[in-house]
Amino acid sequence: KEFSETIHSLAETLGIDYKLNIQTDISQNAEFFDINELAANFFSNLLESQEGIAGMAYVHERGLNTKTIRQFKLGLSPKQPTALIEYFKSIKIPTSKLIEVGLASENQKGFRDFFSNRIMFPIQNPKNKIIGFGGRILGNDGPKYLNTPATTIFDKKSILYGYNQIGRLLPKNLPIIIVEGYMDAISAHQYGYNNVVATLGTSITKQHLTQLKKVSTKIIQALDSDQAGQSATLRSLESTYSIFQEGYLGQRKEIELHIASLPPNEDPDSLIRNNSKKWDSTLNQSLPFVEYLINAIGTLFSINTPNDKAKV
Questions:
Q1: By the 8 A CB rule, do 159 and 211 touch?
Q2: Is the pLDDT of residue 206 over 60?
Q3: Is 266's pLDDT higher than 60?
Q4: Residue 252 pLDDT more than 70?
Q5: What percent of the chain has pLDDT over 70?
Q6: Rounded CA gap, 178 and 70, in Å?
Q7: How far is 5 from 103, CA to CA, in rounded Å?
Q8: Are the beta carbons of 234 and 296 closer than 8 angstroms?
Q9: Helices (H), the chain
């Protein structure tokens, strides 16, 4: 259930007199979902049009087939800076609504689309409602990846890309694999690894664990080999470590976290496409979280003196 629906249900069950305008919240969310769905269709149609030739060439070059492109509703945002705004104006949806849902922004020159000339990745909640987008730039004008800004329905700290695709019917004890990028997750699903999700540029959060424990008690985080050295890898795991230290909701007992280190010059996308057996063995050789940390930290210091050992 959405947050507002949950409040409504709990209040009725417990006999609490609440003052939140629940119906307004639900109605507003439904409107935002509808706007995002219309935008996703707009982007998808553009990708499959003459204007989308370069975008389609990119996704095909990345090894995606037509079935996968449509399964994940991939699209293309136009180069024209106000094309999406003009489309929504034509169907009587004001620009102010697009700003609220994160599809448009305003600067000194006026209103413009938030995404421009990007491969579009619709991001869905567990009920398959589109709550936001990720965009991968096709040229060099702007950051490589861009996500929808925070809205009432989109908070990237609580989102796992592809979570809506894994369902609740995974084989017993099958672990959930966490990767870093949209393409990593999509490639995995195309090749039959339906237990893969991606974080949106964040470390694992409490919100992620709360979702994941519903479908599996074992999580494997697959780390790209191109991270800038062991120190950077450890920094990226700091927040994850703090969550498990806290024992949030008994996580230390309920969830088993492993870390898989990919071979040099490989990411999950390339490894799955080019050497699936190596991908399987990499996951099978993943280390329990604390063991991985001890080994990794041990490589940063010599242990010849008591002071060095104290640092470790």
A1: no
A2: yes
A3: yes
A4: no
A5: 87
A6: 22
A7: 25
A8: yes
A9: 3-14, 22-47, 53-61, 66-71, 83-90, 95-101, 163-166, 182-190, 206-212, 229-246, 251-254, 268-274, 276-284, 289-298, 306-311
